[in-house]
Specification:
With 109 residues, this protein is mostly helical. The chain has one domain. It is 62% helix and 0% strand. It is flat.
Length: 109
């Protein structure tokens, strides 16, 4: 997300909003940690630049959607829901099969 040319589509909007919320929560938690050294809080905190860029990206996608007609917006929301559901299926944790038991008995030496 560090590049001004990064783009996304409306299907990522819930994740972007969640990510922004996480960044803001982390920043506030770190600010409240008065017992931690200032340098440690600064290093652990999300940068203002990252927060700004995520906000801009959310705003850009939201403004694009707001320019659509109600019918177009409904179609986009339906398509985005399908894409998110499909993405979850493909990007989920891979299933690891259990190794098959070795059915060959050890041969005596």
């Amino acid at each position: 997300m560090g590049c001004d040319h990064f783009s996304t589509d409306v299907s990522y909007l819930p994740e972007l909003r969640s990510y922004l919320d996480d960044l803001l929560r982390t920043r506030e938690k770190l600010r409240a940690m008065t017992e931690a050294d200032e340098w440690a809080r600064t290093e652990a905190a999300p940068s203002e630049e990252e927060i700004r860029r995520v906000r801009q990206l959310i705003q850009r996608v939201t403004e694009d959607v707001d320019q659509l007609t109600d019918d177009e917006r409904d179609q986009i929301q339906q398509a985005a829901a399908i894409v998110r559901k499909t993405r979850q299926g493909f990007l989920g944790m891979p299933r690891i099969r259990q190794p098959l038991p070795d059915l060959r008995p050890e041969r005596p030496a």
